[in-house]
């Protein structure tokens, strides 16, 4: 289980770097035009479907984090919510699984 846990950490790191590479290329090429980026998310039905798929998945993850963190009384996982919406689901989800799978402090 230990190695699987670190696989999720590696996915979180990859999920934060790889998508940001493309976002930053687009932002720099388009003079920080955030409105244009958002417009690009809805440029056709395929992009719109993917945008909604990721949005709904991010909302589901957020609800899971909120409920699970309250139930477990472990606020550390809450850091994954802004990372999910600021970087992406590819960072927030594997990071939350990594954090949630850490060994219990109970004896």
UniProtKB/TrEMBL annotation:
Name under which the protein is recorded: Uncharacterized protein DUF2834
UniProt keyword annotations, A-Z: Membrane, Transmembrane, Transmembrane helix
Transmembrane segments: 7-29, 49-67, 79-99
A Pfam family reported for this protein in Swiss-Prot or TrEMBL: DUF2834
Keyword Transmembrane: yes
